[in-house]
Design brief:
With 253 residues, the chain is α+β, with helices and mostly antiparallel strands. It has six helices and twelve strands. Helix content is 27%, strand content 31%. A hairpin with a 2-residue loop joins strand 9 and strand 10.
């Protein structure tokens, strides 16, 4: 059974929350008559427990209840960029810096491609391997990062697997159809090994990002990132229930 006009408007505002839109935009997106949309918005606003809100004249959005907040917090995709890995060469590695096409101060430099992104691999004579993935213009998600670290281990099989570390990492969320007004960027540097930045990324997007120098073992970094992208926000408050195993013989009888 098709949704009635009011339900369609509410559903649309929920999907784009916390953004505000005008009746004209709603009518264009939902392909509804403009006058019909305006009348339905007025009817919805007059309801006692209406889910929509008019913060300023002519602009409407969904109220930020628990369901909406939960949806917002999980909808913005966390992406990764500025990734640098380091590892130690095996003691008896057959690799020689002289095999590299490019050289710089006792370093062999290789260029590779991973899923249409440039990878720069630098091998030091002193026994260090550096891997830099350039993803500023095209950040990757966690699944791609997981594939990337497996790919690195495969092509650099002369590096000790246990020695891989994440030296540098950037996390970002790109907010589409948004513009900074009056400033081009905002930067906050609080910690010695991390800073935060908000800036205009293109004409219609604002990037919120943090750069870190975690110096974490790769497996530890993977665990943290996996927990970050898989975090679940409860849709509503729940009453705490004591697990059966925690019920003592005297406390609950």
């Amino acid at each position: 059974m098709p949704l009635i006009v009011g339900e369609r408007i509410i559903h649309y505002l929920f999907q784009i929350a916390p953004d505000e839109v005008t009746p004209k935009t709603i009518s264009r997106v939902l392909r509804l008559n403009h006058s019909t949309v305006r009348k339905e918005l007025n009817r919805l606003l007059a309801k006692k427990n209406t889910p929509i809100f008019c913060e300023r004249r002519g602009w409407y959005r969904h109220k930020l209840d628990m369901d909406t907040i939960a949806k917002i917090s999980t909808s913005k995709r966390i992406e990764l960029h500025g990734i640098k890995l380091e590892g130690c060469l095996q003691a008896n590695t057959p690799y020689s810096v002289s095999e590299a096409r490019h050289h710089y101060r006792k370093r062999g430099i290789h260029k590779e491609m991973f899923e249409d992104r440039i990878v720069t691999i630098t091998i030091h004579e002193m026994g260090l391997a550096e891997v830099w993935l350039n993803t500023s213009e095209h950040p990757i998600g966690f699944q791609q990062f997981d594939r990337f670290q497996s790919w690195v281990k495969g092509i650099l099989d002369f590096v000790e697997p246990w020695s891989w570390k994440v030296i540098q990492l950037g996390l970002n969320v790109d907010v589409r159809e948004m513009n900074l007004e009056g400033v081009s960027s905002l930067k906050l540097s609080v910690f010695r090994n991390a800073w935060f930045q908000i800036y205009q990324k293109g004409e219609d997007a604002v990037r919120v990002e943090t750069h870190m120098f975690p110096n974490l073992h790769l497996e530890e970094a993977l665990t943290i990132l996996r927990q970050l992208v898989e975090v679940k926000v409860p849709l509503r408050e729940q009453t705490y229930e004591i697990p059966e195993l925690d019920r003592g013989d005297f406390a609950y009888r």
